Fold this protein.
Amino acid sequence: MYQVLAIEEALGRKEGMASDYGNLGILYKTQGELEQAEEMYQSP
């Protein structure tokens, strides 16, 4: 998933980056890693 995020960042696709950060937040929340989830939700 981080590879996709890196590609989106390199291409400047903000909409894709927002989606990727949201998906990572959901993943971390589901795994009970709430601090990581919060970081993803607050990412640019």
User: Anything to note?
Assistant: The CA atoms of residues 29 and 37 lie 5 Å apart.
